[in-house]
């Protein structure tokens, strides 16, 4: 009888993620293939953004919000999933950029990695997406029996990525609580980026967005005043490691980075 020789995963990855013998997600970077993203850009009153922001962020000058629905048929670390979320325009260090206050998806591995590595504000929600191959797309995210977000887009013509404000850079607030009490063990502002980006198509769209009140989310505050438009983009890319751009608990890091 032949013997099976193997190296335990715990020996290779015990310092990477939990559980040590079989981590919920693989090492970064993550390869994404044939991802279809629907984006809606709209204006809200900047005062609506304020309650969703941590210090040191302030609402941006224009009150721009980007709502998105992303259909991932393949990712190397998590498998397939769907997600919906929002980015809000903020002002930091005198510049307009974006912050991600909410993100909902239906894959526990991607939720764990997003929260533990990047500080993404991920929560589980039921996703209901129509077929992205049609000219009309509808996406909803439901949590606790409430449709928190509902988006529709309809293709109207060829678009370009620079037809709307760039979401880069965008930031997350990463918090890991202490086991010893109700305070953070980690509290950082993080930034991530993608590489090897390959775009297959980009279409401009007419679009609608609905946000419903729920005790599970504060995004209902971001009431649309004017919809600027939408886009549907299909692309492949690689999500890389990110960086800490501000550390609340270790200010010496901020001085080193001139933050």
Structure description:
The protein has one domain (24-175, 190-243): Beta Barrel (Acetoacetate decarboxylase-like), CATH 2.40.400. The longest helix is centred in the middle third of the chain and has 11 residues, at 108-118. It is 10% helix and 51% strand. It has helices at 9-13, 46-49, 108-118, 251-257; strands at 30-43, 58-59, 64-72, 74-75, 81-92, 95-105, 122-124, 126-129, 136-143, 146-158, 170-177, 184-191, 194-211, 226-239, 243-247. It has a 15-stranded mixed sheet that branches. The protein is mainly beta. It starts with 8 loop residues before the first helix and ends with a helix. It contains 4 helices and 15 strands. 33% of the residues are buried. Helix 3 (108-118) links the parallel strand 6 and strand 7 (122-124).
């Amino acid at each position: 009888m032949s013997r099976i020789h193997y190296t335990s995963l715990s020996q290779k990855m015990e310092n990477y993620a939990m559980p040590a013998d079989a981590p919920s997600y693989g090492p970064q970077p993550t390869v994404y293939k044939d991802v279809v993203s629907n984006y809606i850009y709209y204006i809200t009153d900047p005062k609506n953004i304020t309650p969703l922001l941590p210090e040191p962020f302030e609402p941006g000058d224009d009150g721009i919000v980007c709502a998105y629905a992303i259909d991932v048929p393949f990712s190397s670390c998590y498998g397939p999933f769907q997600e919906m979320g929002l980015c809000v325009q903020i002002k930091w260090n005198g510049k307009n950029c974006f912050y991600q206050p909410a993100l909902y998806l239906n894959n526990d591995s991607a939720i764990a990695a997003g929260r533990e590595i990047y500080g993404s504000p991920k929560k589980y929600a039921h996703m209901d997406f129509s077929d992205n191959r049609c000219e009309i797309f509808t996406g909803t995210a439901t949590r606790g029996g409430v449709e928190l977000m509902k988006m529709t887009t309809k293709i109207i013509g060829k678009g370009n990525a620079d037809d709307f404000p760039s979401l880069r850079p965008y930031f997350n607030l990463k918090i890991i609580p202490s086991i010893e009490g109700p305070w953070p063990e980690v509290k950082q502002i993080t930034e991530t980026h993608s590489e090897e980006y390959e775009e297959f198509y980009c279409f401009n769209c007419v679009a609608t967005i609905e946000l419903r009140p729920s005790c599970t989310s504060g995004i209902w505050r971001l009431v649309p005043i004017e919809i600027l438009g939408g886009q549907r983009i299909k692309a492949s890319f690689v999500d890389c490691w990110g960086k800490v751009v501000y550390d609340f608990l270790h200010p010496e890091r901020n001085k080193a980075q001139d933050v």
